[in-house]
Amino acid sequence: GVIYDPNRDELFQVITGCGAYMNGVQSQASNAQRISEAVVIQEFGSERSAEGIDAMLGATRRLLEAGVQSLRQIGSGVLDLAYVGCGRVDAVYTGVAGEYWHPWDYTAGVLFAEESGAQVRTIEGKSFQVFDKSMLCASSKSLCEDMVNTLTKSG
């Protein structure tokens, strides 16, 4: 897979089993272990129903209450995942309200993140499949578990 960010002139390249590279340098996800150490990207997509907005804002509130270092919105699913893979951010999620990405929005990014050592799951913590309606990518297994517990908590 190949991802290009023209704004930063960065080229992300990945081949299954061969590692992930940004501008020719091998990438490694960060070692953040908890939400309180993490910079997290959240993407809200096009969901605008009252219930969807409540779900998205509820997830944001839970992350803030858990002490997240920072929340970001980049606007590009594939770059979100590449940024987790190169250690620029620690996690990204989508799908708390049914606002999901399409496979063409993220497939190369999932592979890049995984080859960099990141975990890719559903928000419920299940193994991610290409047509799932939610996605969570985190730099470490423990951060992934912390994110699952926080995002699926009611309230």
UniProtKB/TrEMBL annotation:
<dbReference type="InterPro" id="IPR000760">
    <property type="entry name" value="Inositol_monophosphatase-like"/>
</dbReference>
<dbReference type="GO" id="GO:0046872">
    <property type="term" value="F:metal ion binding"/>
</dbReference>
<dbReference type="GO" id="GO:0007165">
    <property type="term" value="P:signal transduction"/>
</dbReference>
<dbReference type="GO" id="GO:0008934">
    <property type="term" value="F:inositol monophosphate 1-phosphatase activity"/>
</dbReference>
<keyword id="KW-0460">Magnesium</keyword>
<dbReference type="GO" id="GO:0006020">
    <property type="term" value="P:inositol metabolic process"/>
</dbReference>
<dbReference type="Pfam" id="PF00459">
    <property type="entry name" value="Inositol_P"/>
</dbReference>
<comment type="similarity">
    <text>Belongs to the inositol monophosphatase superfamily.</text>
</comment>
<protein>
    <recommendedName>
        <fullName>Inositol monophosphatase</fullName>
    </recommendedName>
</protein>
<keyword id="KW-0479">Metal-binding</keyword>
<feature type="binding site">
    <location>
        <position position="105"/>
    </location>
    <ligand>
        <name>Mg(2+)</name>
    </ligand>
</feature>
